[in-house]
Amino acid sequence: MAKGKKGKKSTGKTITLKMAQNYMGLTLDGKRRLDLSFKEFATVPKCIQKLWEIDELDLSRNLIRKIPDFIDKFINMSVLDLHSNYLEALPVTIVHLQNLLVLNLCNNRLTSVPSELGLLKKLHTLNLGLNLLEDLPSSIGALKELRHIGLSDNRFTRIPPCLSRMNKLEKVNLDRNPILTELTPSHGLIMTTERLYLVTESCLCDTCLNMCQTERRKMDDVVKSKIT
């Protein structure tokens, strides 16, 4: 740093409205998509508020530390991709995105998610993998349309109880979490850290289903032998 000059916090690259408009496009199914991934900015450009009618917004792989409250203006948005940033929290205003179907928050620095997330009634895919989460708010169980949830590479020591209330949930990825399962007080704890991927039986082919059922019976036999 040059002597006599005060250092400034880097905000990354600047995106103008004209530049943002150049990154607009249509998906194969005719959705309006704004792709601002890999743009190296640390602050979400205020100018994109004027593009509030978009259906999909990709802000992934940037340097973003905070999502501005004006995110609630994008009331038509069905897909919001924020993976691979530096987010430590989410604004409560995200609850206004009532048409949101897909929310990708993977690979950030989240230690918690707001309970209001459970009010996104149409959400069917939620990726929270590669964060610092230890638990989920019980309100997440109100996401009755949720099919897929990614929770891998966090700090969960148990399977979040709220998942049991999601009737349409098909796939849960809990890989590489320090899940602790208590058998009995005398037998201590089993720690599973590498792989824990849950799916509904209807998602499996006959061969995979038979294999899983066989492995389940083997595991049940092991548990029974340890208890007895």
Automatic annotation (TrEMBL):
Xref: InterPro entries: Leu-rich_rpt, Leu-rich_rpt_typical-subtyp, LRR_dom_sf, LRR_domain-containing
Gene3D superfamilies in the record: Ribonuclease Inhibitor (3.80.10.10)
Keyword terms of this UniProt record: Leucine-rich repeat, Repeat
SUPFAM superfamilies per record: Outer arm dynein light chain 1 (SSF52075)
Species this protein is from: Seriola dumerili (Greater amberjack)
Record's GO cellular component terms: cytoplasm
Stated name of the protein: Leucine rich repeat containing 18
A Pfam family the protein falls into: LRR_1
